[in-house]
Structures are given as C-alpha cells and as structure tokens.
Amino acid sequence: MKKSLTVCRPQSPESDSDYNILLHDQSIVIPSKLDHIADSFEKKDHSWFVTSQVPTDLTIQVQDITFYAHKYPLVSKCGYISQIEIQPSISNLGYDLKLEHFPGGSETFEIILKFCYGLPVDLNPNNVASLRCASEFLEMTEELDDGNLISKTEAFLTFVVLSSWRDSITVLKSCEYLSPWAENLQIVRRCCDSIAWKASQDNSTTVEIISEEGWWFDDVAILRIDHFARTITAVRAKGLKPEIIGSCIMHYAEKWLPGIDVALEGPRAFGSGKNELQLSILSGRREEGGVGHNKELKMIIESLVSILPPEKEAVPCKFLLWMLKMSVVYSATQVLISELEKRVGIVLQDANVNDLLIPTYRNGDQGKLAISSEELTMHNIDAVQRIVEYFLIYEQQLPHQHKSGKLNVSKLLDNYLAEIARDPNLSITKFHVLAEALPENARTCHDGLYRAIDTYLKTHPSLSEHDRKRLCRVMDYEKLSLDACMHAAQNDRLPVRVVIQVLLAEQVKMRVAVKGKEPVASGKDSDHEESQSSAQMEIKNLKLELERVKMDMAELKREHSELQHECEKLNNKQRRIPSWLLGWKKIRNSSLFIQKLDGDESGEGMQRPDRADGRMSSRRRLSAT
Questions:
Q1: CB 346 within 8 A of CB 391
Q2: For residue 277, which of 353, 383, 377 has the smallest C-alpha distance?
Q3: Which among 54, 406, 410, 416 is least buried, having the fewest CB atoms inside 10 angstroms?
Q4: Hey, how many other C-beta atoms are within 10 angstroms of the C-beta on 80?
Q5: CB 395 within 8 A of CB 406
Q6: d(Cα 19, Cα 8) in Å, to the nearest integer?
Q7: What is the β-pairing status of strands 47-51 and 65-69?
Q8: How far is residue 421's CA from residue 461's CA, in Å, rounded to a whole number?
Q9: Sign of the dihedral through C-alpha 454, 456, 461, 466
Q10: What is the pLDDT at residue 441?
Q11: How far apart, in whole angstroms, are the C-alpha atoms of residue 517 and residue 314?
Q12: What is the pTM of this model?
C-alpha cells in the first residue's frame, strides 16, 4: 500500500500561516516563520541544551529533566509563561521555573520546545493527546500566534484521529495518563463515541458479528477499565445487541481477571480442621501483587458488573457465577454481590454443580481467615440459598406456561447437596434448610435427594437418632425409584422407622411392576412423566398394604399372648411336682451318679446269669407262697 503525501502550502509568499505535510496518519508541522535562534537540541545526562550562538536565559524543570532555553520563543507562544514573573535563577536550585504536574511529562515538553523554536514537529496518534493537553496547560492559543499548537492538535484530532478506528483506540489508550486534562478537553468522550459509532455499523446478525469481528474485542480489551466502561456505555446507546456487548465484556474479563483454579474432587478437597480452598485463594492473592493489585481487580469486577446488559440472554449463567466467585474472593461491595445473585437466580436452570460451588472467604482484622464454625465450611451455602430464593421469586412472576425450570433446578440442587454433604463442618440446619428450599411439587423423583442425605449421614456418623429422623423427613418415599428403595432397605445408616416405610414403598412398587400396571422407575428415568391416575392407584395400594400390616400385627399380638398363657401353665405345673422327685432328678444328673453307673456296667456280662437265676428263684418262692 502506497503512502499518500499531501503538502499544504500558503497561497502567497506573504502569508503568515504555517503549512503541514500529512503523511498517512501523522502530520509534520513546519512553521512558515523560522526563528534561527536554535540550530538543534542536545541532551546531556538529565539536561537539554539548545545549540545556539545566543546564550540561554531561562531554565525550566519538568519532572527530573532541566531544559536550558531562551525566554522569547516561549513567551511569544505560551500565555502561561508570559503571565508569570520569572525570577533570576538561584544557584542552589538551578532553574527559574518548575512545571509540576505537566501533562505528558518531559517528552511532551521537548516537542513543545521544538515547536516554539520553529523546528518541525511530528504529530501522530501516540502524542497528539498529550500535546493537546500540554498546549492547553501552557495556553498556546491563537491570540498569541496564528496557527498555534492548540489549533493544530485540535484539527489533527478531528480530521485524522476520529475518522480512523485504530487511531481512536491509540489516542484513547494514551489518555490513561492525562487525567483530568483529557476528560476536561472531551478527548476521551469523542474517542469513545467514534469507537461506538464504528462498532455499531453493519449490525445484521448476532452470530456473524461475534464470529467475524473478533478484532473489535481485542482492540477495546487493551483499554483501561474506566475507558472500556465508557466505550461500552456508548456502544449500548447506539443500539448494539446485548449478546455482542456481553461477549465483549466476557472477553475483557478473561483478559484482565485471574481464574479461580479450584476443582473439588471428592473428599480430597476437604482438609481435617483446615479450609484448604480458602488458604489457596489467600496465598494466591498475596502472590499476585499485594493490596494495590487486589484493589485494581476489585474495581475491574465492579465496573464490569455495572455495565452488564440487563437482558437475560446477554451473558451465560457460567460467567455470572464466575464473576460472583471473583466478587467474593476480592471483597466486592454487598450491593454488587446481591445484584449478581439475583441475575444468577433468573438463569439458575442453566447452571451446573461445579459453577455453583462458591468458595467461602472473609477477611479478618489483619488479613487472616476467621475461624468460626460458620466460616470453616468449604462453600458459601448462604449465597446458594439466596440464589434459590431469587429463582423462586422469578418463577412466581412468570406465566404458568413458562414455568419449566423447577425440574432442572431440583436436579441441580440435589447434586449440589450431594457435593456439600462431604463437608464435615456443614451443620445439619443449613443442609436441612437448603434441602427444603424448593416446594414439594418441584421434585418428581427423590433419588438425588436420598443420595445427598445418605452422603451426609455417612460423613457425619455421630448424628443423633432425632437428627437422622428429622433429616429423612425431607424425603418422600413414594417418589423413590425401585433401585433406591432396595438400597435404602439395606442401609444401616437410616433409622429403623424409615427403613420400614421404605420397605412398604418397595413392596408396592414391586407389586405394581409385576402386575404390569406401570413400568418400574429406574434411577435416571423415574423422574419422567407419571400420570395422575397411576399415582393415585399407588397411594391406594400403599394404604391397603398398611391396613394388611396392621392386621398382621394384631394377629401376631394375639398369638404372642396365647404363647405367654401356655408358658404360664407350664410354669404352674412344674411348681406342683414333689420336692423329693426334683431332688432325685438332680442326683441322676450329677457326675458322681454317672461315674457309678459306668463302673457297674463293666461287670454286667458276668453277673447277668446269676441275677436272672436269683430273679427266677424269687418268683418261684412267691408263686409257691
């Protein structure tokens, strides 16, 4: 690409106006009347000297640089210097005039000094803003000299910079160190309006704009946060679609905000007595740059949230939750955190469990972590509780046909409860309140809730029987699938009464499954469509089963009473046996009697005939008698 060169000369040799050489995006200003006081400039250490045959009579200090110049060229073009009374230089100070808070510093003053001496000056997007502010500081107006620096820089800004996208970005970036002069001279506003007008052109389709104009996001992402916020505000005023604005804000946040590198991988994420996540975040913040850096990040977070488009589809829920985590970590204002929680509640059905795991972080008096029981929990349960409440409020405001997010939120909340249940410092009150946050009709299946409760009972084995029963009351056993019922029937962590109720529900489901009246609910598909008639039939069968159980219990009680009556009869009969018979039984059962009996049996074969004869003879004697 060839560079265009345009030389603008005066109409007549007698004209006093200057002429400029415009070269692409820069301008070389060549005054028509050259003052041959200075031939060149020479720098030595921290001093600038004018090479001239006339000795210098003025010393000016800007920052740490001292300029040795002549009074006349500066007074003829700078109203500020002409109005002050310059005293002779003092030997111990070494300067006559000190310009404090000079816009652009010593580099800008060097260019102005060359302009005052009539040397060519190079105007470009990198220095035009500082020269415009410095010329305003020195009051280089047209009243002192035609074609003074104010008019030249103003013309360059208007006709060169604002007509170019790249130049507008460059000038706006250079204004970061020119406050408040750039603001008061409307340089920032004009650049932001120029960028907004160019960004809002050809706003045909959202997908094409986002995919084809990625360079726009990269260009504005280099701006300081206050200038970026003003640019986005101007773009919104031009009517750009909220999806594009949201994508640009997300791109800026990814560039300037650090990510939270936290992944909870089961029980390993929980330490014994220490909050490892809090400690890792705290150490990361200290390593990143200290208090000043944290304040800068806090300002970026608050500014980005303040310029988010109010539309629901502007940014995804994942980005909102990420900004909420950053707001908690870097101690943003409570108003901003509440605003983010409300916005997350509106789109809560699009969230996932990992994004919802908001860390708990609070500053102590000296930057130390507080050690109360509430703050030792791994995650911020209260924030999620408020988000769910905002979701329910938003759902109530929607028409009935649009209320379709409770099912997704119920699954999300059950998975979240299963994650936080692994925290040994989580109180049963917080877990119970969050489990009951949704209305009863929000869950069509309680398998996820059962899994969360079982995980909590496993992590907290020291819970009392009363607390276990209180926690299990949240579940509806009729909404458990057959697989969950079979698992709960063998779960020794559940109270006995809960196991009995689960067994009844399991029998009903098995009976219905065998009869084929309705399909058996599986762990994943049981939360789908259940007709009202089948639900009522299941309830009726459960009531009949309870009546049968009551009848069986009554029959068992009757049989138990009969058995007790029989036992009492046997005890009374044993009491009527004579005491000598009981004594004889004791003797027979004694070891001495058994040994005697064994000894007599050893001679039984030899004595048996004699005994037989003796018995026979005795019988004969009795018969004879």
A1: yes
A2: 377
A3: 54
A4: 15
A5: yes
A6: 5
A7: parallel
A8: 12
A9: negative
A10: 84
A11: 47
A12: 0.70
**Distance from C-alpha of 179 to C-alpha of 353, rounded to nearest angstrom:** 44
Q: How far apart are the first and last CA of the chain?
A: 161
Average pLDDT over residues 348-354: 91
Give, for 23, the enclosing helix (H) or strand (E).
strand 19-23
Two tokens at 402?
């649009």
Please, which residues bridge with residue 121 across strands?
29
User: Measuring CA to CA, which residue among 162, 169, 67, 177 is closest to residue 130?
Assistant: 177
Q: Residue 394 corresponds to which tokens in the numbers above?
A: 């938003």
d(CA 329, CA 380): 11
Among residues 214, 223, 293, 227, which one has the least CA distance to residue 258?
Answer: 293
**Identity of the amino acid at 327:** S
SS (H, E, C) 346-412: HCHHHCCHHHHCCECCCECCCCCECCCCCCCCCECHHHHHHHHHHHHHHHHHCCHHHCCCHHHHHHH
Which residue has better confidence, 469 or 585? 469
What are the pLDDT digits (tens) for 244-285?
Answer: 999 999 999 999 988 754 322 333 333 333 344 443 444 444
Which tokens in the block code for residue 446?
A: 């309680």
Counting Cβ atoms within 10 Å, is residue 56 exposed (0-12), middle (13-18) or buried (19+)? middle
pLDDT at 364: 45
What distance in Å separates the CA atoms of residue 329 and residue 340, rounded to the nearest whole number? 14
Q: CA dihedral in degrees (522, 524, 528, 533; nearest 10)?
A: 20
Whether the ω angle into residue 316 lies within 30 degrees of 0, i.e. cis, is: no
What pLDDT was estimated at residue 620?
42
Nearest one of 35, 45, 83 to 65, comparing CA atoms: 45
pLDDT at 299 over 90: yes
Cβ neighbourhood burial of 88 (10 Å; 0-12, 13-18, 19+)? exposed
Residue 255 burial (CB < 10 Å; 0-12/13-18/19+)?
A: exposed
Task: Return the amino acid letter for 538.
Answer: E
According to DSSP, the β-strands at 40-44 and 47-51 are: antiparallel
**Residue range 250-259, pLDDT digits in tens:** 999 999 988 7
pLDDT tier, 141 (very low <50, low <70, confident <90, very high otherwise): very high
Which residues, 6+ apart, have CB-to-CB distance to 467 below 8 Å? 428
Q: Tens of pLDDT along 372-404?
A: 455 578 889 999 999 999 999 998 887 765 556
Q: How many CB atoms lie within 10 A of CB 399?
A: 6
Amino acid at 580: W
Q: What mean pLDDT comes out for the span 520-537?
A: 51
Tokens matching residue 125: 């997007």
In terms of pLDDT, which residue wins out, 607 or 213? 213
Average pLDDT score over residue span 451-458: 93
Q: What is the pLDDT of residues 92-137, one digit of tens each?
A: 445 578 888 999 999 999 999 989 888 888 999 999 999 999 999 9
Query: 121 phi and psi, to 5 degrees?
Result: -120, 135
